[in-house]
Amino acid sequence: MGFWSRTFTWWNGATWGTGLFTRLHGEEVARDDAGNIYYRDKKKPASRWVIYNGSNDGSRVPPEWQAWLKGTIDDVPDKALPPKRKFERPAEVNPTGTMAAFRPDGSLSKGGLRPASTGDYQPWTPD
């Protein structure tokens, strides 16, 4: 990442200010499977934050780490939570705004045509 993008963008990783604050005051706690790095303040352990690996989107943080960031659990998820069960699926990033987002029938990306309404529905028409 270039100098200018790190200086002026907050949506794609840490800015210089966040990086400097993290070096001075942060203690790395762990990294998750997505490459996000979790920190806590050296003097105030209840103050916690994440440096994203990529775009800054809260849905990129798994639920167990969300619990740690918000102080719901005190220790890191591997130690504080029970092991994952076989039926649990990994968390997914929110696909809103991407081509992977849900597109209902009638949306412009599906041709703009939707099935005719059924039942007793009467659309409003101005007089």
Automatic annotation (TrEMBL):
Residues 79-127 are annotated as: Disordered. It holds the Pfam family NDUFA12. It comes from the Bacteria. Transmembrane segments: none annotated. Signal peptide: none annotated. InterPro entries: NDUFA12 (IPR007763). NCBIfam families: PRK08183.1 (NF006040). PANTHER family: NADH DEHYDROGENASE [UBIQUINONE] 1 ALPHA SUBCOMPLEX SUBUNIT 12, NADH-UBIQUINONE OXIDOREDUCTASE SUBUNIT B17.2. This is NADH:ubiquinone oxidoreductase subunit NDUFA12. It comes from Sphingomonas sediminicola.
